[in-house]
Amino acid sequence: MSNDLHYISPPKEGFKNELFDRLLAAGYYRMQHLMFTCNETIINSDYKTIPVFWLRTLAQDVSLKKAARNILKKCAGFTVVIEPAYVDDEIETLYAAYKKYVQFEVSASCASYLHQPELPEPFDSMMIKVLDGNKLIAAGYFDTGNESIAGIMNIYHPQYRAYSPGKFLILQKLQYALSKNMQYYYTGYISTESIRFDYKTFPDAEAVEVLLPVERIWAPYSKLGKPFLDAYYMQLLHNL
């Protein structure tokens, strides 16, 4: 199966409101100022492609698992601030610490990951800041539509990794969706050949749906699982 990326450039009004919801539901996701979709990706230096399937969480159906509740308890002493997205020197300092810590390749800066400064911003974007006193220890970005949010990026200071700040930010995004009575939290893709993206199901795997690209339908992830998706992908290869 070809890893043929499909891109959509933003219309004059941008990717907002109902249009953003519809594109997310069709399996498209943000990449800087574009929306894209794919069925494969490359995550290692060997340039081998691996299959991916798009996920979303049914926000209103989530029943937080014990691990998620424990993270909320551990992080209860931190301050959470949600506001329109921006990038400043404080964010870039945090991003630099995160970039040095992680074992995979990331963009040179937070700003370059999120957008190209010479182009208008086509998304309605928000950010979550997590502070320990006055110290910024984590930040997460997400885009919003009418009934959906899409998580874009989470960064955190390595000194706080014991608090699972990345997962804490996922839970804060989920709470934001619930507070706005939104139906869907799109978390990106998962792969049948890597565990790197499995964390996206941790709040409650039973509330997660996966997009089947042939039928173009969303199905319960917990009732299918990776063995089914692996066989599904192999059948796609066979048919092609």
Helix-strand layout with pairing:
Blueprint lengths: L5 E3 L8 H9 L3 E3 L2 E4 L2 E3 L6 E10 L7 H9 L4 E6 L4 H13 L8 H5 L10 E8 L2 E10 L3 E9 L8 H15 L4 E8 L16 E5 L4 E4 H19 L1
Parallel strand pairs: 9-10
Antiparallel strand pairs: 1-3, 2-3, 4-5, 5-10, 5-11, 6-7, 7-8, 8-9, 11-12
| Helical residue percent band | 25-40%
Our measurement of the CA-to-CA distance between the termini, rounded to an integer number of angstroms, reads 7 Å
What would CATH call the class? Alpha Beta
SSE string = EHEEEEHEHHEEEHEEEH
**Class by SSE composition:** alpha+beta
The beta-strand count equals 12
* H/I helix tally: 6
In CATH, the topology is named: Aminopeptidase
| Low-pLDDT regions | none
**How much strand?**
25-35%
Provide mean pLDDT, rounded: 93
CATH structural architecture = 3-Layer(aba) Sandwich
Could you give a short account of the major beta sheet? 9 strands, mixed
Relevant CATH superfamily: Gcn5-related N-acetyltransferase (GNAT)
Overall 3D form: globular
Rg, alpha carbons? 18 Å
**How many separate structural domains?**
1
